[in-house]
Amino acid sequence: MNFVLASRNKHKIQEILEILPELKNQIKTLNDFPQIPEIDETGKTYEENALLKAKTVCHLLSITTLADDSGLEVKELDGGPGIYSSRFLGENTSYKIKNEAIIKKLQDAPREKRKARFVCAAAAVFPNGKVITARGEIHGYIADKIQGESGFGYDPIFFLPDYGKTMAELSEKEKNRISHRALAFRKLFDNLQSSSYNGK
Questions:
Q1: pTM, whole model, 2 decimals?
Q2: Fewer beta carbons within 10 Å, N or C terminal of the chain?
Q3: CA distance linking residue 167 with residue 172, whole number of Å
């Protein structure tokens, strides 16, 4: 079976293909379908946004579609930026500026209030209407400064106490074993396997 990944984000696409190498030759992305318009993420949860993207693309192409939505939730920011993570301070604002802004907001916050988590909801929608979803979470703290050159997004400020480094200081292999996106998509893949890829 072939799948479409409802994304044009090169970093996300590369990461998901590394997380699910079993599907590498079966997945196309929205870069292969330029006629598909950008899909507004109007949901109120990660799951709603993931399903919105997957259902829209599946309806247009009649191909089983995978999608996800993810975000950073910070205790001191009342769970923000959350589902608005990619739009925090504006969609075209660089993540360096976003990361610096979060660090500045937390500069006097004690460790307890620097608690944070990455959340990812992944969804698969079949042409026959069947829907599968899965969620992954990873917990940590907001770092005192930007650290690391790997990863993307908020990875350079997400500190993992068990590793003593930020997500951006992990190797790709380490990150793709423990990340919120890896956990969500592996659960999704397990469910796809149990459904025999046929939506039953």
A1: 0.93
A2: C
A3: 10
